[in-house]
Amino acid sequence: MKQEDNDIKEFFERLQETDRLEAEIPSFNLPEAPPKPKRSVLRYLLPLGVAASLLLFFGIDWGPHNTSIEDETLVITMTIEESNTTDDFLSDETSISSWKSPSDILIQEFED
Amino acid sequence: MRKNSTLEALLKEHHKDAFLWSLQCCGYNHDDASDVLQMVYLKIVEGKATFKEQSSFKTWLFSVIRFTAIDYIKKQPPFNSLELIQIAEEPIVYKEETNYKKMLLQLPERQQQILLLAFYHHMTLKAIAETTGLHIGTVRTHYERGKMALRKLIQTVAI
User: How many CA atoms lie within 13 A of B152 on its CB side?
Assistant: First the structure.
């Protein structure tokens, strides 16, 4: 605080003086802290009950285990063989133009 | 247990200053100031306001009082119902006292509080910044402006 603040200081000193004379300061009275609410056993049991109900609802099997797929080893092997021929594109089916009747051989013999 | 007794001793030591600050934060309303101070003590006892020793005890206590008073005043209804208004005689007050308080109340609220903390409660500007939650630069500005404004009022009264 600067020296020239004397007028301000004096103002507040007078204000303090009037407060000292006039202000009724109540006696110091520290309030008691309210007791903490006791937590009932139900508060702890309730979530456990809900959790147990959910487990039962979603069908957790707590009984003896039957043979399951986990006990066996299942191996599936898939092999794909690639071929470099064009056979796959040739059709073995007989077309109408190249069809020969089963008795065609008889005609050939006759001609001979 | 020992911590509580220390806290109680500190609160008792600062009780008078705390009440006066509460009174100043509540616009010199005695009942409001008492209520605010009790609310502050309850907050401390319940552990809702805890002193973390980051500042002095007085700075922390004044800060709690200030913010509690702000909340308390906000919750007050803006107008009293006619049934609650009691017509009473004007209390006899010292002329000099009225003038000082009235003069101070003419300043903007922030300037009032900063000047009160500086000159009435003898706090440093840094402590004032911690109490009010303002930046030190802002505090300095209001401090200088407040002094200028109050000086003008003092000179007007003197004339």
Answer: 7
**Residues in contact with B36: Cβ distance below 8 Å, sequence separation at least 6, in sequence order:** B22, B25, B26, B65, B68, B69, B72
The pair phi, psi for residue B91, each rounded to 5°, is: -65, 145
Helices marked H in B47-135: 57-75, 95-105, 109-115, 125-132
The sign one gets for the Cα dihedral B80, B85, B89, B93 is negative
CA-based nearest residue in chain A for residue B116: A12
Q: Is B48 on the interface with A (CB under 8 A)?
A: no
3-state SS class at B24:
helix
DSSP string covering B8-24: HHHHHHTHHHHHHHHHH
Determine contact: A52 vs chain B, CB below 8 A: no
Is residue B86 predicted with pLDDT exceeding 60? no
| Distance (Å) from the alpha carbon of A38 to chain B's nearest alpha carbon | 16
The dihedral built from the CA positions of residue B79, B81, B86 and B89, taken in this order, carries a sign that is positive
User: Do the Cβ atoms of B96 and A34 come within 8 Å?
Assistant: no
Q: With cut-offs at 50, 70 and 90, classify the pLDDT of residue B137.
A: very high
Q: Complex ipTM, two decimals?
A: 0.78
Cα B36–B63–B112 angle (5° rounding)?
85
For B132-137, which contacts have Cβ atoms below 8 Å and span 24 or more sequence positions? Answer: B132/B63, B132/B66, B133/B63, B133/B67, B134/B110
Q: Which of A11, A18, A28 sits opposite B12 (nearest CB)?
A: A28
Range of A66-80, B7-21, B42-56 with top mean pLDDT: B7-21
Contact assignment for A15 to B154 by CB distance below 8 Å:
no
